[in-house]
Design goal:
The chain has nine helices and no strands. It is an all-alpha fold and 225 residues long. The N and C termini lie far apart (43 Å).
Length: 225
């Protein structure tokens, strides 16, 4: 009985060490990219020996997979906060705030996400999960556009969703490159303005074309994660 806490303490130390190594890996991936990163560089960043690193991860790929899976999980949580049925009751500017803010917050807090996911030599398992998440996000955007502009055809909704999503991703690069503070806030505001000016005419045209279409919450067909 008295020896029970020891495994738990060892497990807690192990979890802290893994978190330390993953944080170091995220920093090095951001600085050097996945392909140029080595396990020795990660060990140096974590202030541990390579031997200590290999106690927890057999190679760089295993580190990237663990980090990527954690980041993908957190990203799903972020878009779960954004794409909700409740947000569909908001006017379009409010909806953009509700969708854009958590996604930008996630990417600003986790710059390793883009550095890892866009690497040319990223492990296939992570690339596949990222592609699946990308497709899910695009579907969510298309559902939202279908709610606000129900008169659009399926082809138009798909095209509009793709364009809006591409605009967001391009703007996100500028947001991440901007210094934290007023400049980054202004860049975020500019991105929202761009999306609003692109989507507003489509919403207005759709409303004029089908004024009788109901937009009550819950009738949109949007799926909550």
């Amino acid at each position: 009985m008295s020896e029970e806490p020891k495994p738990r303490r060892r497990q807690a130390r192990g979890e802290r060490r893994i978190a330390q190594l993953l944080e170091a890996a995220a920093n090095v991936f951001c600085a050097s990219g996945y392909t140029a990163t080595s396990t020795n560089a990660i060990a140096r960043e974590a202030h541990v020996s390579p031997g200590t690193l290999y106690q927890y991860f057999p190679n760089k790929e295993a580190i990237a997979i663990e980090l990527g899976e954690r980041l993908l999980h957190d990203m799903r949580e972020a878009h779960g906060q954004a794409f909700t049925a409740e947000n569909l009751a908001l006017p379009l500017p409010g909806l953009l705030d509700a969708v854009v803010d958590p996604l930008i917050e996630f990417n600003c807090a986790n710059p390793a996400f883009l550095a890892l996911m866009h690497g040319s030599d990223v492990p296939g398992r992570i690339a596949e999960e990222h592609d699946e998440l990308h497709a899910t996000l695009l579907t969510r955007v298309e559902e939202v556009i279908g709610h606000y502009a129900p008169a659009l055809s399926a082809a138009d909704r798909s095209r509009t969703a793709g364009m809006a999503f591409a605009a967001f991703k391009g703007g996100l690069d500028l947001v991440l490159a901007a210094p934290e503070g007023p400049e980054r806030d202004a860049t975020v505001a500019e991105l929202k303005t761009l999306l609003l000016r692109y989507l507003s005419p489509l919403v207005e045209e759709s409303a004029a074309a089908s004024p009788a279409v109901a937009t009550r919450p819950g009738a949109s067909g949007i799926h909550t994660p």
